[in-house]
Amino acid sequence: MEKMTTEKEHIEEIRREKFSIGEKRANPLIEDLHQAVKNLSAELYSTNVHFVKELIQVPYLVSFHLFNFSLIFIHAQSMLAIYLIMHMNHSIIGVYDITLFLNLSSSTIFLYTSIKLYLTYWIFM
Fold first, then answer.
1. What's the rounded Cα separation, in Å, for the pair 116 and 60?
2. Which spans are transmembrane here (predicted)?
3. Who's near 37: CB < 8 A, 6+ residues apart?
4. Is the pTM of this model over 0.70?
5. Which of 23, 47, 78, 114 is paired with 64 by a 20 to 30 Å CA distance?
């Protein structure tokens, strides 16, 4: 019985000291967590490839199988610009909509479902 009390006390000590559970003081891990999220966010969209993968993934996450959805990605090297056009039911989706799609996504896991996503990639030299 004494051993169980010691184990319970040990767990309670970890909860109090490390995670501030049941304490009135702020959790010391909050600042570490904020810094980790800040560092991850800085690296997450640092490459165009990750951004495009995230944009492609989002329709899988938000059930676009209800719509006629297509994504056209045009990379024009001579113009120093990348054009991204998203079509849904034959109407062009605006910048605001793309931002909403990206905010809905929380990971980079590509979910394979029966949703049809059309990706066209053209390079003009």
1. 9
2. 66-86, 98-124
3. none
4. no
5. 47
